[in-house]
Amino acid sequence: MVMCSKVTTAPQTEKLILDLLNRHDADKNGLLDKAEIQRAFKELNSWLPSYRSYFGIKMADEDGDGVINMNNKELDNLVQYIKKQKYDLPTQKNWHAS
């Protein structure tokens, strides 16, 4: 039995994740705090969004300030962490803003 599914390429996947994270920067200050990242994981239907947000920050936060700067390598690190979790990413038009 062969199952077919729509494959999302890496650049598309990264763009979807970036769009998601940008939507969850609630105060638009260019920094993602734990609550904002946790809401993003909830939108991804993460089983434990608090756990994922904690470890996402731990893996991505290079300067140790407890937030993810969206204007440097920390954002890329967080995107890579989310990609590794292999969430089923819907197309952008099917995503809802939280």
Q: So what's the CATH class of one domain?
A: Mainly Alpha
Mean pLDDT: 86
Shape assignment: globular
* Main pleated-sheet profile: 2 strands, antiparallel
Number of helices: 4
Helix content: 40-55%
Numbering strands along the chain, what is their spatial order in the largest sheet? 1-2
Assigned CATH superfamily of one domain: EF-hand
* SSE string: HEHHEH
Distance between the termini: 38 Å
Strand content range: under 5%
GO molecular function, one term: calcium ion binding
Protein name: EF-hand domain-containing protein
Keywords: Calcium
Organism: Dipteronia dyeriana
Q: What would your notes on this structure say?
A:
- The chain is built from four helices and two strands; from the N terminus they run αβααβα.
- Strands 1-2 form a two-stranded antiparallel sheet.
- The chain is globular.
